[in-house]
Amino acid sequence: MTTVLLTGFEPFGGDAVNPSGEAVHRVASRWEGPDVLVTAVLPVTFAGAAGRLRELLAAHRPDIVLGAGLAGGRAAIGVERVAVNLVDARIPDNDGEQPVDVPSVPGAAAAHFATLPVKEIARRIAAAGIPAEVSYSAGTFVCNHVFFTALEAAATGTRAGFVHVPWSAEHAPAADSAALPLADIAQGLEIAVRTSVEVAADAATPGGTLH
Ligand code: PCA
User: 0.90 exceeded by the pTM?
Assistant: First the structure.
């Protein structure tokens, strides 16, 4: 039996809701197994988020960790391939902290790659009719910090990845904002979890970007 830890985030940056946290609740409420799904909504604070993630890793010893966060302005679900060991906060976190140019984990490598099948996850979400792509930057804010921490802190054999989601259509800041229905965001996360459980090696198909 596989144990999966799926996390979302609380609202931040003045937003009233965060679709990542809402979508995680939806996935949890209809999860039917057989694999064990543990879910949590993390604070958008540098001090709190990584510590809470480490607690969850220690308590549940998941085989797979999938983080999810909001990337407002993106039109597609972004399956992140790279976590960098860098914090450079463009805006304050929910504690009012705004660290600049410090490592996520002092002394650790400059970057880690996701250890989930990112191409296959993006392919299957897109095949369900939901816009999805592999992304090569999770930014330098709290999401990347959690993503890097997951890859650094997870026990040997634990696989980890991160997905950025667009604004939900239900709570987009403007009528013409890029957004997806919350139901599609939740379905995308569920597909990402199922694919991570089922697929060990990523699809060997050409991907990447030219620039
Ligand atoms: N998105 C932010 C932090 C929390 C969230 O949902 C980010 O991309 O870093």
Answer: yes
Among 80, 120, 133, 190, which one carries the catalytic annotation? Answer: 80
The residue contributing the CA closest to ligand 1 atom 8 is: 143
The whole-angstrom separation of Cα 178 and Cα 117 is 26
Å from CA of 71 to ligand 1 middle: 6
* CATH architecture of the domain with residue range 3-198: 3-Layer(aba) Sandwich (3.40)
Residue 211 known to be catalytic:
no
Q: What is the mean pLDDT of each run of 10 residues along the chain (211 residues)?
A: 97 95 98 95 97 96 97 97 98 98 97 97 98 98 98 88 98 94 98 97 91 91
pLDDT tens column, 166-188: 999 999 999 999 999 999 999 99
By the 10 Å C-beta count (0-12 exposed, 13-18 middle, 19+ buried), 156 is classed as exposed
- Which one-letter amino acid corresponds to residue 149? T
> In 3D, which of 31, 51, 36 has the Cα closest to residue 3?
36
Q: Where are the domains of the chain?
A: 3-198
Letter for the amino acid at 203? A
